[in-house]
Input
Amino acid sequence: MRPIRSVFAAIAASAAVVLSGLPASALERLVLRMPYLGVDFTINLGEGRSVEEVIQSSPDLVDLDRASEGRLLALLKTVFLSPLPAELRGLLEGSTGQPLLEQALNAAAFIVNLEGVPFDSSGSMLTKALRRAYDNDQNNLLGFLHQLPGEEASIDLSKLAEAVNRLVANQSDGLELVKAGFAAPVSSELFESLQDPTWTREVIRVSVQHRDEPLRVLVLKPQGAGNQRLVVISHGLWDDPESFEAWAEVLAAKGYVVLLPDHPGSNFEQQRAMLAGDRPPPGPEELRLRPLDVSALLTAVEQGRVLAGRDLNTKEVAVVGHSWGATTALQLAGGIPTDQKLKARCRDPRDPERNISWVLQCSWLSGINKAGVADSRVKTVVAVSPPMRLLFDPVQSLDSVNGQRSSRPKVLLISGTRDWIVPSGPEAVSPMRDTQAARLGHRLVLVDGGTHFNLRAVRGQAPKAVIGPVVLAWINQQMTMTSSFTFDAGRWGHPDRRLVDVSGQL
Output
């Protein structure tokens, strides 16, 4: 997942209007509720059109403006009169009725309420209100609010605090585990060997049957024959292969051929088209199509249509993924998504494990039963920050036959202790702990201070790729490569961050 300020700005603006139906009258009041302080601030919207008139018609704001010597007026002018993001209209018009927008609005409805108007999760009311604001040359928040139906909208700030506190709590397990554990040592030899590039790169196009357009694929190849082993790296939502090129550089420097497919249904270009109103958000079908991208790419290599002459082993392949790409990797490794948890838990806004990634996970419900697309060629997986709590137990690898271990691929799960998007507690620690996955050969590494985005590394940053060494060490070990640099050897730390294998603490 790529950081997309414009999208979240749009959703934040939408949150002021989590509502539905045709406007019977203009919105008259906006109430900020602070139950913990026993205070409500009422902003009277219906009695004025300018910010000055809004303040003069709201006694609470008059007093605050006087106490702030007019600074409140300046602040509200910035909030209410700044133009709405140019992409917002196209985003809403192209996203109305789509599962991802519906889930975002469902989450916002926990904090925002419009009294007397039925809730509309499709976003159609938002689109109509925004269109009227633009048509009236009022493309700002104040003009938008004036176009909403009902008499009063309220924002419960205590619920916002509750949501923030829940996200903080969802990081506590990971922080405690890292604090109690020991950081992996650093291999100075490895970092010295990454200083000078020993690989080549190219971009190719690969036709696949399940998509109308060819896949764009970034390819990194070691100089010489390499080790004849293949790794695929899958990017996250609204991201691209180049965000993870330094991971590939670490692997290519040690003999691996690395393929980084650009998933066209959920990549950076798709985001750009969505913001322009030209394409809807990624739908549930992408949950199935993304792993099909990887499988089709492996088949193209196997058939000699890609990388002909490299004599690559396509029977045992490693897949690395970030965010949604990590979910993709887990599907390929045999994780079978089911709807049981989605149906049971998506409807509860107070679920103690609820986090931002649930917006995406809950949007997959209608496509979940077709998303079991394992590929037997995948021997091992590195899953970095995967949204997975509601989908499956991807680290579960017990067969029910005679209590014997299965031959499913072993998983290295990596999570950052400061990840707000996919927090380590519910999305990494809990699944590993619940399934006792460590005794089955799976491992969990936590990165101290790691966020959802700072673990990525772009072209030319191989020495700065925080998780590059541990990814290489894990794949070396699972592929049984002749190398002293393995996961069990332990020297896969990084000088910039503490990396801790917490598997034994679970």
About this structure: The chain has a mean pLDDT of 88.
